[in-house]
Write a structure and sequence with these properties.
This protein is mainly alpha-helical. The chain folds into two domains: about 1-70; about 75-140. The protein has five helices and no strands. Helix 3 (about 50-70) crosses helix 5 (about 105-140) and helix 4 (about 80-105) runs antiparallel to helix 5 (about 105-140). The longest helix is centred in the last third of the chain and has 35 residues, at about 105-140. The protein starts with 6 loop residues before the first helix and ends with a helix. Keywords: Membrane, Transmembrane, Transmembrane helix. It comes from Niallia taxi. This is Branched-chain amino acid ABC transporter substrate-binding protein.
């Protein structure tokens, strides 16, 4: 048998995968919502489905970033975007440190601020890498 290499079949396969992912995510959210109502927030977070949901959400977000980086205009300077993003992240982190420090103390504020900064810097650097890679691919062509 000869393998079919039709683009329409590939697109339909991607649509089917998307529908399956939506149904799977809705099911996970329904189970986690039930656990939240019946057992509480701590028990919900102890469920292994919470881990699966968080990992799949993070992977989906990173995959979406690569698509959005490809759709940006080529005139954008990746280095300028990187520094603007870091400045905004630093401002948000400073606000969180200040607010948390006023309520829970400086140690808790620094810890929460550090976590927010580390969690924010990872996607910023990844997006910078995607932009630089895209610009290199464009200049090579």
């Amino acid at each position: 048998m000869k393998m079919i290499k039709d683009e329409r079949l590939k697109i339909q396969n991607l649509k089917n995968i998307r529908i399956a992912y939506i149904i799977q995510t809705a099911g996970i959210l329904a189970i986690l919502g039930y656990e939240l109502v019946i057992k509480g927030f701590d028990e919900m977070m102890d469920n292994p489905l919470w881990f699966v949901f968080m990992i799949s959400t993070i992977v989906s977000a990173y995959l979406s970033m690569s698509i959005s980086a490809d759709h940006e205009s080529t005139k954008k300077n990746p280095k300028k975007s990187l520094w603007i993003s870091i400045a905004v992240l630093s401002l948000i982190t400073a606000i969180f440190i200040l607010v948390v420090s006023l309520t829970d103390g400086i140690n808790m504020g620094l810890m929460i601020g550090g976590i927010i900064f580390i969690c924010g810097i990872a996607p910023i650097i990844y997006l910078y890498y995607l932009r630089v890679k895209r610009n290199e691919d464009i200049t090579e062509e």
